Structure of ATP-binding protein:
Amino acid sequence: MGSLTLKQFRAPLLEPIDLHLQAGECQTLSGPSGSGKTRLLRALADLDPSQGEVSLNNQERSTFSAPQWRSKVGLLLAESGWWLERVGDHFKQPQAELFERLELPSEAINWEVSRLSSGERQRLSLIRLLSNQPQVLLLDEATANLDQANTAKVERLIADWRNQHQVAVLWVTHDPQQRKRVSDHSWLIESGRLRKAP
């Protein structure tokens, strides 16, 4: 279970933000390219500099070590990092159910990263993230490289996951239809400011 609270939180190029994501809630974030969406997610994950307060379940980030925070507030980037040769080398405890949900064969764990398509990389990076059991999900264009069928599978998996585990989700998407399907609240970044999406 995880909730995320921002108080006067400021990432590069963004004005201070006050925001609360309840456990089990999904909020989406959209805006023009270069408006600061990814910068905000990276700052929340403690990968880029920030100012102000951010807390997990009312516990301030400053009380966590960086590795502790990043294990609890998990970031899925649009272009995921793969630094070892085999897929399985990137997993601590792969969950077979997650492979099944995204219709990837169990032997995918033994695949070489170099043979993966962009869609396979994206789905496997989501499985890797969920396998680490974070309490908050920061998703940057989680379905950008997927066709309609696989997009639907990912959306269902994330919806089921957040309901079952009561994790908060902040999801960057450029797709207005996806925003309607997955979000409880939608936000827009324009000119460095966060405002409610129309």
